[in-house]
Design a protein that fits this description.
It is built from four helices and 15 strands. Strands 1, 2, 3, 4, 5, 6 and 7 form a seven-stranded mixed sheet that branches. A hairpin with a 5-residue loop joins strand 12 and strand 13.
Length: 323
Amino acid sequence: MKCKKWLWLVAILLTATQSLQALQAQPATAVAPRELPTRGALYSLLDTYLAALKARQPAQVPWATGAIYTENNVVLQAGDGLWGTVTAVGDYDFRFADPHTGAVVFYGTVTETDTASPFAVRLKIKEGRILEAETVVARPLDAGVPFVNAKLTPRPELNGVLPPAERVSRERLIAVANGYFDTLQRNDGTLHTEFEPGCNRRENGMQTTNHPNSGYANMELGCAAQFKLGIYRYDDALRARRFPVVDEERGLVLASAFIDHSGRLNDYKLADGRPATSMFHRPHSYYLLEAFRIRGGRIQGIEAVFTTVPYGMPSPWSVAHSR
């Protein structure tokens, strides 16, 4: 009886061993790589979103489950905010895409009844649906700067595919853009990034470099010259930095951050010894979406849309997540 029991146990073990060997001998099932969205598909979804916005019809947007919509850094229901007041979307169209992460960005203008504003939109796409929609609208009465211009003209230097010899890696593009923020934060004349000689920056529709007729002395200078003077010493912190869209073919990076001003600095000296006075005498913050065109590792052009928000305001996008 005991012999039969042992023979039965040996048979079970032998069968299990043979089954395991057979399973191991089978070819591994290939795991298909994640199919990345094409640039065309991302642009198509962006066009769908903009058409729905223009029509005030958020239901026309293919929202993903759990989608988040923010406007000027506040989480809103899709259909609220700009969706309820938009009367026109302008013709200006500057866009780029990041098929690697399924993201796309748009810079344009929007009209609410009788007021036109520059605005920027970032979308994140998942499985053909919009998971994140981030909007910054620089409304003239809210932006917190004396210049807001919604009559935007195209900027050829920001467009076009870069020749392979002038492209840099995704990591390098982010590092160059981040170096710009390092340069701007407590600006003391030290450059932490590189600029092309003809670099220009446009903020809320206003060219703020190489602009001799702007009415602002510092705007007569180029990108690097402004920072070498330490003009922006009063920018205490470039906080909650993100780089959610990187277009390697076109050398474009979208950055998001807050610029915090504590208001403590009043009089200070520029790098050349000249006296200067801060423009902020109270706690204040800007929230921005800023695009950098980078060619050969140097910043060629900048397009920014930003608006005033409560000082020290946190970001709903700052918590790391993989959605």
